[in-house]
Amino acid sequence: MKIVKNPEEMTRVASDLRAGGCGLALVPTMGALHQGHLSLVGLALEGGRRTVVSVFVNPTQFGPGEDFARYPRDLEKDAALLEKEGADVLFAPDAQGIYPEGFSTRISLPSFENVLCGPFRPGHFGGVATVCCVLFGIVRPDVAVFGRKDAQQLAVIRRMVADLRLGIGIVAAPIVREPDGLAMSSRNAYLTPDQRKEAPAIFRGISAAAALARLGAPSAVELRAAFEDEIGPGGILSIQYADLVDPSTMVPMDRLDRDGLFAVAVHAGKTRLIDNAVLRPGVGAVEV
Q1: What is d(CA 93, CA 200) in angstroms, rounded to the nearest whole number?
Q2: Residues 6+ apart with CB under 8 A from 112
Q3: Does 2-173 match 186-287 in CATH topology?
Q4: What is 186-287's CATH topology?
């Protein structure tokens, strides 16, 4: 596996990889890789595609008081995992490489800024869209792979790619969970032992909402109540939101009368955990 840090070199290497005719995939990450990330790499490699994995902790998607400075970083460990997985290239630029002097472009998707994570993380999705667009320009992949756990991010990237006619296929990978149901996340490393013990209640709450969906077409209020019952009041976990929205637009839904995304954000102390499932009336969870 080749490790590249210079964006111009990455563009040249990517061009050589594409010349092989098998297709080129990009997996954008912020590092601190776990099995969830590696599942994205496995999906990217399918069909013999050459695969670039980027590791870049993007400062523009962190707000004031968020965890940019302490976000886990271990490039040596990430590189070892990616080499074992079979990735072709690890692209690890620094901030100057992504945002050189004079950089002044910012992508904005206003329709996503007032729903789910948007109000709680102002500017976050603009930062995500901008850095992904820069990475797409450097690597010029045929496809890019993202996880379904970050459902709003996935919707943002799909909208940006469609609106800007970027011609990149967006592949969505299933959520990878720990044996007790907790969705894998780099931020799980922040959890104390007590918080980690309580965190699986998030998935139990989503499963309770899915059980309601199997019985019919519950309201958003009923789904939230089922989730709240599992989390409980006044404990280690506190709910930031638990909302039913359209899976593509993130527009709130009053009732599960068609496929809907039930998305949640929960705090365990200072650690913010997100999770979701696509629910179908009369069926339950169709994507978890």
Answers
A1: 35
A2: 118, 125, 152, 155, 156, 159, 250
A3: no
A4: Pantoate--beta-alanine Ligase; Chain: A,domain 2 (3.30.1300)
Total residues found in the chain within this entry: 288
CA angle 130, 170, 153 (to 5 degrees): 50
How far CA 224 is from CA of 190, 213, 227, in Å, comes to 26, 12, 5
CB atoms within 10 A of CB 81: 18
Candidate list 34, 37, 124, 267, residue with the active-site label? 37
Q: Is 37 a catalytic site residue? A: yes
Give pTM, 2 decimals. Answer: 0.95
Residue whose C-alpha is closest to residue 158's, from 121, 111, 116, 120:
111
Domain boundaries in the chain?
2-173, 186-287
Q: Could you read off the pLDDT of 259-286 as tens digits, one per residue?
A: 999 999 999 999 999 999 999 999 999 9
Residues 58-96 pLDDT 10s: 999 999 989 999 999 999 999 999 999 999 999 999 999
CATH 3.40.50.1820 for the 2-173 domain, yes or no: no
d(CA 38, CA 40): 5
Neighbouring-strand partners of residue 170: 144
As a 3-state breakdown, the chain gives helix, strand, coil percent values, each rounded to 5, of: 40, 25, 35
